[in-house]
Amino acid sequence: MAKPAVVLIGADKGGVGKTTVARTLLDYFTAHQIRVRAFDTEVPRGTLKRFHPDVTEVVDINLVPDQMKIFDTLQDGDASVTLIDVRAGIMSPTLRALRDIGFIDAAKKGQLTFAVFHILGPSIASLDEISETAAYLGDAKYFMVKNFINNTHFFEWDEATHSSYFKRIKDAVEIVIPKLSEMATEQVELASVPFVTFIANKKRSGEPANNSFVLRGYVRHWLGNIWAEYDRIGVTDIVRPKELTTATGTASTAGNEPLGRPRPVVRIAAEAANN
Amino acid sequence: MLTAPAQASVAPGTGPARDGASRKTTPLYIVCSPQRTVGKTLLARLLSEFYLMDGRPVAAFDLADEEPQLADFLPRSTTLADIGEAMGQMALFDQIIADREATKIVDVSHRTFKDFFSIAAKIEFFEEARRQGIEPLILFMIAPGNKSAKAYNILGRWFAEASLLPVRNHMVAKGVPYGSGFPNESGVSVSLEIPLLPASLKALVEDRSFSFAEFCRERPSPLPARLDEEFRAWIKRIFLQFREVELWLICEDIMSSLR
């Protein structure tokens, strides 16, 4: 049985783009033919579920039955990756709960892979979050995400202060999510489809949509840059260890790309359009 | 100066490459230069009127923000475009892609030169245009000085999938060598030149009510016989070059249908 991977996306502050990052990751996994299931903790009505209803379930992570639904089923089904979009304000309590149920220890023992994408806000309070988060991380892969999608300016950040916090977490890696044109953001929101579906100019039903070519171009360019960041940090290697993919050959895509390499966004979109 | 976007994709290729080989390719002329007063609007006017004269549909887009501009001369077939905002970009690029019938002519002012090509690279505009059976032809008005040659070189590197053609306006670029500064590496083996216009005709051509097409149809001409002859020869020479470009497009269509 493959080692399950859990990807937690969170922040203690709202409106910093957690769900946007979750959506780009779901598209990325799908593009790499990595089976993924997602949990949206924004009860009762999750935003992530609106964009990826087929793979997403809305849960209340504070409730034990819902925690069981997520963590007792990591080996069940055919999804090798479990992605959890943690709603604002409960990142630290969630990590604490994971420690209490022995999840962090299991990751430490190599029984599962645990990755945290910590979406940072522009304020100094975000740096305190890093400090608080560090206490629960164990051997998790930790990614500090600077999200510029909402035209955020990290104005309060002093580089030296930032570095001092950054160094507190062993092997922390920084990722930058670039800004996307407001109008493009708005149109994808209205379309309520995954980014790659929007780029392919399709509706959820698979019928042709009437999305602007310009806006699709902006989304394609933006998503391409984010995927380049995921390539850089080796997301596929984290959730799908190399020896496993080599043995099963599951990373091999329709094209002739090397193992684990992403296909260009435009080709993913073209394939989606043909399906 | 232009800075290449991270994903400015460059796909090699010459001639039309599109989905559905049976469709006729329509040209998209982008008249541009990073410098002002080099004759961009004159060339855009001549191109527009070349097609309008035969009753063929033309959609012209004017990115200029100072007068006189294309829209002043051809208000009925020209749309003013402001690419400073997403709405304006959609109005321009989406409309070009959506219209499969008309010949498109974009007059890119020196002020919008950088933005236009940056956006085009970012949204992979030329690749999509070619997929839709629209052949982008960048008509670059050459001018003396490094600025012009440098910009030409950058466009050549960024947009290998579009045909980049140097255009020499003898009123501003007489003696500027095409050579290494402005090599024509496209498949279109036409040297586009705007010959010197007799000084006595300048005022007539710059009159906003003047139409090249109407002048060609009009006989007798209001001009003295010798000047009339000279002017007609001037227009004919330019239109002949446009015909050669069209012929190249037709040949490419035939070639691609045989592939």
What does this structure look like?
- The complex is a heterodimer of chains A (275) and B (259).
- With 275 residues, chain A is α/β, with parallel strands linked by helices.
- In chain A, 43% of the residues lie in helices and 14% in strands.
- Chain A has 13 helices and 7 strands.
- Chain A has helices at 18-31, 47-51, 64-71, 91-100, 103-108, 125-134, 159-166, 182-191, 195-199, 213-233, 235-239, 242-248, 265-274, and strands at residues 5-10, 36-40, 56-58, 81-85, 113-120, 141-147, 173-177.
- Chain A has a 7-stranded parallel beta sheet, sandwiched between helices.
- In chain A, strand 5 (113-120), helix 6 and strand 6 (141-147) form a beta-alpha-beta unit.
- In chain A, helix 8 (182-191) crosses helix 10 (213-233).
- Chain A is globular, with a radius of gyration of 18 Å.
- Mean pLDDT of chain A is 81; it is low at 243-264.
- Chain B is globular and about 50 Å long.
- Mean pLDDT of chain B is 87; it is low at 1-13.
- In chain B, strand 5, helix 6 and strand 6 form a beta-alpha-beta unit.
- Chain B is 41% helix and 15% strand.
- Chain B has a 7-stranded parallel beta sheet, sandwiched between helices.
- Chain B has helices at 40-53, 70-73, 86-98, 113-122, 125-131, 146-158, 202-206, 212-217, 225-258; strands at 26-32, 58-62, 78-80, 103-107, 134-141, 163-169, 192-194.
- Chain B is an alpha/beta fold.
- Chain B has 9 helices and 7 strands; from the N terminus they run E-H-E-H-E-H-E-H-H-E-H-E-E-H-H-H.
- The longest helix of chain B has 34 residues, at 225-258.
- The N and C termini of chain B lie far apart (40 Å).
- Chains A and B meet through helix 8 and helix 10 of A and helix 3 of B.
